[in-house]
Specification:
The complex is a heterodimer of chains A (about 90) and B (about 325). By secondary structure, chain A is an alpha+beta fold. Chain A contains 2 helices and 3 strands, in the order E-E-H-E-H. In chain A, strand 1 and strand 2 form a beta hairpin. In chain A, about 15% of the residues are buried. With about 325 residues, chain B is mostly helical. Chain B has 14 helices and 2 strands; from the N terminus they run H-H-H-H-H-H-H-H-H-H-H-E-E-H-H-H. The N terminus of chain B is likely disordered. The chains are: A alpha+beta (about 90), B mainly alpha (about 325). Chains A and B meet through strand 2 and helix 1 of A and helix 1, helix 5, helix 8 and helix 14 of B.
Amino acid sequence: MRDWPLWEVFVRSRRGLSHVHVGSLHAPDAEMALRNARDLYTRRQEGVSLWVVPSTEIVASDPGEREAFFEPAGDKVYRHPTFYDVPEGVEHL
Amino acid sequence: MLHDVARDADICHILGYRRPVAFDDLLAGDGRVEPRDEMPEGYRRTLVRQIAQHAHSEIIGMQPEGNWISRAPSLRRKAILMAKVQDEAGHGLYLYAAAETLGVDRADLLDQLHTGRQKYSSIFNYPTLTWADVGAIGWLVDGAAIVNQVPLCRCSYGPYARAMVRICKEESFHQRQGFEILHTLSHGSPAQQRMAQDAVDRYWWPALMMFGPPDDDSPNSAQSMAWGIKRFSNDDLRQRFVDMTVPQAQALGLTLPDPQIAWNEDRGHYDFGPIDFTELAEVIKGNGPCNQQRLAHKVQAHEDGAWVREAASAYAAKHARPTEGAA
């Protein structure tokens, strides 16, 4: 068990919605990871589909670099509809 | 006009000078700390200890009730109890997973439990002598746990808070099934009523002790509250539990074993008698009725399961080999 890899579990709660991360678990292989994920995260019909992904396969942005990494979007306020002036009385815009 | 104010606020938010969000700023803004954020070592250590102890409690907590699965009075009760004990296992696993985000290994945490270096809730060191005890555990022990756990859904550490949201959703069934067991017994034959009352007599005080020592004797509370791990003091939570439970006991037709329980108009709360905290200290020290039995059973179950883990590992290794060979 000490050597079993960690898997991240994603559940699609119903058709039409994305898979959402719900937690993690240890399992020796993908098949057992799926079965364990079913028993652990969908005991009350919380899902219609499951993904399990080896934790080591997830590439994440660095929280320490967050500012620089996300900064390019910071000065582009014109991407938001609230940036624009709308004259009084104009609707459906 | 409102429109403009909203837009200005947006622009400030988007253009405003953004400092790196440090730990203290996060806490000041009631933000959540996530696994790879920088955090003080004391915060990390406190969380590891608390989450591990919480996980161990869920796992050890399967034993007192598991004791009655084979003797549940009906198939309905048996199915419910199995589902509940399964939930406890699940809660333990959510919590071990949350602890692991802090850089510890579940196998190490289990070692520490098995060797007595980490604790679990002292409530599980009391025996379940009768079927009514299963009801009392659901109603009082899970009831107290819910009062303790609901504020943890807003804990400053994201993975712990998220695990607690799942756990709290599932706990309310636990409390209700316990209440239902006691309600059935307390409205049954005189022998059943006595059994229900006896269970409540034995579990009431230990349930109150689940909230921990009184505030003036709880050295770590202030720091935990400053860190946003703990949201309310032990005594506040204990009072909340008493206020919630007294009317429920009346609905059950059972008496809580404390003659000093009385509504206090001025405080707007129920008064209750002094708690014997020397008993709590003794049980924590290992001198409760079932400490040795609980730990020995846990270690035994872990050792008995070794062949299953080995078989799963062997199967995984065997099926992984052809792929490696082909690569």
